[in-house]
Write a structure and sequence with these properties.
single chain; 65 residues; alpha+beta; Helicase, Ruva Protein, domain 3; 57% helix; elongated
């Protein structure tokens, strides 16, 4: 979501490492999903919300019916 992107940008800005921080934040967030998602054809969409970034809430995984 847009709020999640803003939250990621704010975290990266406070780390003062620029694009490296952006990459680290996104990779840490998606690490498990990068391995699970390709092997599960029922997954159609993964929604990352602000709470996922700030409070470590699980992303919303939308599956086909």
């Amino acid at each position: 979501t847009k709020d999640a992107l803003i939250s990621i940008a704010k975290k990266a800005k406070t780390s003062k490492t620029g694009a490296r921080a952006l990459r680290m934040i996104v990779e840490n967030l998606l690490r498990d999903l990068m391995f699970e998602t390709p092997s599960d054809p029922s997954i159609k969409e993964i929604l990352i919300e602000k709470e996922t970034i700030d409070n470590k809430k699980e992303p919303i995984i939308k599956r086909s019916a």
